[in-house]
Amino acid sequence: MNAHPTREEDFDLYALGALEGDEKQAIERHVAECAECARKLAEARGRIALLALAAPPVAPSPGAKQQLLRRIHAEDTARISPAAATKAAAAERREFFPKWWSRTMAAAGVAAALAAIFLWTENARLNQRLEKMQASLDQQAKDLHEAREEAEMFESAETRMVALTPMPGHPMTARVLYNAKMGMVMCDVQAPAAPQKMSYQLWVMTKGGPISAGAFNTGSTGWSSWMSDVPKGTQPMGFAITIEPEGGMPHPTGPMVMTTRIS
Amino acid sequence: MSPQAGAQSRETDAALMERIAQRDESALAELYDRYAAMLTSVLNRILRDTQAAEEIMQDIFFQVWRTSSQFDAGRGSLPGWLAVIARNRAISRLRRKNPAQGEELGENSVALAYNLESEAAQREMMARVVGALTRLPEEQRRAVELAYFEGMTHSEIARHTGDPLGTVKTRLRAAVETLKRNLQR
Question: For chain A, which terminal residue's Cβ has fewer other Cβ atoms within 10 angstroms, N or C?
C-alpha cells in the first residue's frame, strides 16, 4: 500500500476533479487499500457535491415529471408486452409539442418562487463582476457602495422579480430584480453572444417611454449579470431586451429579443 | 433551522428507495419532487442548455428506477450520489467524452453530513454553500468554479487563467480547505 496522502485537502481536490496524472493515481491506488482514507474520500465527495447547490436555480418544466413517469411505465409494460410498450412510446412522441409549450410557459412562471434563492446566486456573480472593476481605489469604493445598496435591495420587501420571455429564435433566459422605490434594477441573463459589434441592452418600459438599464454582452461565458440605477420612483410597466450597436443607444433602435409585462 | 427539521413528517430517502425497488411509481414521483430542481440547476449551470439538462435529469431518475436495488443507504447519501452522477454526466457531455467513472448509482461512496430531504433544508444549505463560496477570495472562488462547473484540472485551470500551475494548486488547496471549514456544522 502506498503512503497516506500527506494533506487532508487532497481528498477534496480529488473529488473536485482537479488532480491529474501521478497525484490522481496515487489517491486511487491508496483508497483501494485503505478503508480509513476511503471514508475520508467519501466525506470529501459529499462536501464537494454540495457545490451543486451553488448553481443558479432552474426548475424542470412541469411536463418533465409526467414524461418520466410515462417512460418508466412504458419500460415496465415492455417487460410484459412489447406491443404495449411501442404504443406507449408513440404516445410520448405525440406529446412532444405540448411539452415544449409547457416549458416556455413554465420559464415565465417559476421566477417569483425563486426570488429568495436568486439573491444569493446574484451576489456571487456580482462578486465576479467586481473583479473586473478593481482598476482604482475610487472604483472599489463605488463597488462597495453598490454592494451595500444590493444588500438593502435584497432585504427590502418591495423588491420584485420577473422573468423575461424570449422572442422566437432567441434561446435566452433572463431575470430582472427591481425595486422601484430605490430605483435599482439587477439583471441576470443567459444568452448567446450578441452579433459582432453589437450589444444587448435592457430597457425599463415606463409610461414616459423606455429607460436604459444597461448595455451588456454575454461573451464566451454565455452569462451576464449587473445592476443599474434608474430614477427613484420609476414604476416599470415591463422590461425588454433589444440588440443595439456596441455600447448601447439612448433609445431602442434594434430588434427586441426578450420582453415581459408587469401586471 | 436545523437541516434535519424538514424530514420529520416525511419518508426518508431510504424508505422511498425501498418502495421504488418494489416498483412503486408514486415513490419515484416523490423522490423527483425532492431532487429534480437541484439536479436540473447544476446540470443547466454546467451545460448552459436547459433541454440537455432536463434530458440528463430524467435519465438519472430513470436510472434510479432501474437500479434502485443497488442503493445501500449505509454506503452514503442519495442526494450526494445524485449530485455526483449529475455533475459527472454533464462534464462528460460537455467534453464529449464517454461516460466516466462515478456515473452509476452507488458506484462510489458519498458521505453527506446533511439531510437534504426537504426543500427548506436544501434552501438553507444552498445559502450556506453560496455564502461560503462568496466569502472566498475572488481568484480562489473562480478556480473552484472552473474545476467544479467546467470540469477543469489544475493544469487546465492554469492554461485557462494564464496563472502558473503552482499558483493554481496553492489557490485551489486553500479554497477547499476554507470551504471545508466553513461548511462544517
Answer: C
